[in-house]
Design brief:
Order of helices and strands: EHEEEEEHEHEEHEHEEH
Helix content: 25-40%
Distance between the termini: 44 Å
Structural class: alpha/beta
Mean pLDDT: 97
Strand content: 15-25%
Low-confidence stretches: none
Largest sheet: 7 strands, mixed
Strand order of the largest sheet: 3-2-1-4-7-8-9
Radius of gyration: 17 Å
Number of helices: 6
């Protein structure tokens, strides 16, 4: 049984500030260790449930945050930037399930620690088929394209709630309660790891019976509200992106992976002029 694990960092128990998850900052080394242990807890829980093979896609910042030799399960490690499928690079139909570890809430949803949607300097809101979507919901498009269920998410309660419309019944490990964008009540790291281990075990044990690919109606539409008209105008340079008001664009496609790639292109292109 193969598991694809996409790891971010802002959803780790104890992380509440950008300085804790940026490599140039002195605090980063400690919090990077906390992330590593949460990733390993998910892998070890999945192993206990019967999973035998893992690919970890490091999807935070420069995408080189984990220590390959310290990964549990002798996992393959996909790291580095400029991945064509970004946070979902490496997923294909050979996998049995997807884990989202240390994910965070969207820029415009309920309070969530370090909330953003891909690029906080450019994007203020994304909706998928009319429903507010964070990175988890957007990334689920790739899982849908390959027919693979998303079975686990870890982070705060907002993150768990935001993916439910797209992946109903997903197991979640809530490791902190967000007070605001820069404050949270976190579980002790050992307790957080235990919760992740248990949720991963349950997710894998239930895979053969209940898990289904994300429930996203096709053709799917992403509505992206950008932070200023310049960004929206630039987004329309991409074929298939339609401007619907001064700061909002719309992308629709019957192919969920093609839709995701177009969205990532919007993110990369607008990053060049985002303040």
């Amino acid at each position: 049984m193969k598991i694809f694990l996409s790891s971010d960092m802002e959803g780790t128990a104890g992380v509440v500030d950008w300085a804790q998850c940026r490599p140039a900052e002195p605090e980063y080394a400690y919090y990077r260790g906390l992330l590593q242990e949460e990733v390993n807890a998910a892998i070890e829980g999945a192993q206990a449930g019967g999973a035998t093979e893992f690919l970890v896609n490091d999807a935070h910042s420069a995408m080189a945050n984990l220590r390959p030799d310290a990964l549990a399960g002798r996992s393959r490690y996909l790291s580095g930037r400029h991945k064509p499928l970004y946070m979902m690079q490496g997923l294909d139909a050979s996998f049995d399930g997807v884990f989202f570890v240390s994910y965070h809430g969207s820029m415009s949803g309920a309070p969530a620690t370090l909330s953003h949607t891909y690029n906080p300097r450019a994007i203020s809101e994304v909706r998928l088929n009319g429903v507010i979507a964070g990175e988890s919901g957007i990334n689920a498009l790739v899982a849908l394209g390959h027919g693979v269920p998303v079975v686990l998410i870890t982070g705060d309660e907002t993150t768990a709630a935001e993916i439910e419309p797209f992946c109903p019944g997903i197991r979640s490990a809530v490791v902190k309660s967000s007070v605001s964008r820069f404050a949270a009540d976190s579980l002790h790291p050992l307790t957080a790891r235990e919760r992740i281990h248990e949720a991963a075990y349950e997710a894998v044990r239930a895979l053969p019976q209940t898990a289904t690919p994300p429930r996203i109606a096709l053709p799917a539409t992403l509505t992206v509200r950008l932070r200023n008209p310049d960004l929206a105008e630039m987004a329309t340079w991409i074929t298939g992106v339609e401007r619907i008001d001064a700061v909002t664009v719309r992308l629709t496609d019957e192919d969920p992976i093609r839709l995701y790639r177009r969205f990532v292109t919007v993110v990369v292109l607008t990053r060049g002029i985002a303040e």
